[in-house]
Amino acid sequence: MPMEVTLPELGEGIDAADVLTVRVSTGERVEKGQALLEIENEKATAEVPAPVSGTVVEVRISEGDRVAPGQVIVILDPEAGATDETPETTPSESDGDAETESSDAAARPASDVPEVEAETAPEPAVEPPPQPSVAEPASGAPSDGQQHLPVPASPKIRRLARELGLDLTDVTGSGPHGRIVEEDVQSAVRARLSASAAGSAAELPDLSRWGEVTREPMDAVRRATVQSMSRAWATVPHVTHFDRADITELEDQRRSLAQEIEGGRLTLTAVLVRLVAEALARFPKFTAAVDSSRNEIAYREGEDVAVAVDTPRGLLVPVIRDARDKSLSEISTELEELAEKARERRLQAAEMEGAVFTISNLGGIGGTGFTPVVPWPQVAILGVARASTEPVWNGEEFVPRLVLPLALSYDHRLIDGADAARFLRWLCRALERPLAALL
Known about the structure:
Elements: E1 3-6, E2 17-22, E3 29-30, E4 35-40, E5 45-49, E6 54-59, E7 66-67, E8 72-78, H1 155-164, H2 182-199, H3 220-235, E9 238-246, H4 248-257, H5 268-282, E10 289-291, E11 296-298, E12 305-307, E13 309-311, E14 314-316, E15 319-320, H6 328-343, E16 357-361, E17 380-384, E18 388-393, E19 398-411, H7 417-432, H8 434-437
Parallel strand pairs: 12-16, 16-17
Antiparallel strand pairs: 1-8, 2-4, 2-7, 3-6, 4-5, 6-8, 9-19, 10-11, 12-15, 13-14, 17-19, 18-19
């Protein structure tokens, strides 16, 4: 008796996927486990297998369709004796929360050229409301020449609102007698950020008024990039710190040691991954995440470093797990394998999750510098531009040196400017004297 084959659950938070390829047609005989179609969602590409062997009676979907879990995709007539088989609900390989992200561009790690690839104290539960006084202006109140009653909030709450750019006259207090407490401020800020993120999806004006317009739908990777970048930009107050490292000696060593690496590839990106992992161990604040909903800083264990990879379908960010515990040879080999899987659409969602820090290397393409976007919930990302030979004064004369531009974007809610300067300066010194950094 024919049975309906439905799309299985795709993973937490994933409610739809795009059909990339339909692998079967009406009348075709399929074996149990044979791929019926290939789908792509915001996190990965996966195949949907046949739950039983049998003959395809009807195909209910087409390439380019957007399908949801539970939707009928194929009608299948099982073979005799196989009707009792239960369809396997196989979770997609896209389980998890990919960090598609977060940066503006990336370099392929295999390039041969120098890829230049405070917490606040809780508000007292009860505090008498201030007496109305025209002498105390409301925080953020309009200067319209009229007299306004003061906003019922303590000096600490006023200071917090100023730091967050919030007008307290727009906030409704939930404390005694309408007094504004810290949670009211946080709720107002969250609402403003949500509205900002929603604004990024505003409808375009009629562009055809100024000429012909051709449209094409975003694929799953681009949709995920739009969502993650909008969330990161609306949530994280970005600051970027710049520095430069003299990598003349490092580049000589890298080229001479490349033949000792399996496959003959020791890239600058691999060196950066290893040294960044060392820096994260020395500056643990850069592995943390800001939990505004609980007024906490979540420090994470391990040095899982993500590397942005440019692919034909967009930016993917595979993760090198426990990079501090791996040799340069291991990191180079793993980077090459992950980059190849990303370009061939074989990268699984689990391989793009959980990083504490990201490296985006544009050196293989060009440019003198850029400001990468911090991929939330991480608090920092390193941007790497192309190294160039420059005249450097050594105290007696100008000599040619290979200089690498670096940019560290960070979440200013947690990372102070001095923290960023120390982190990046340590990394520059490590690039100039890598063996000393690993002692």
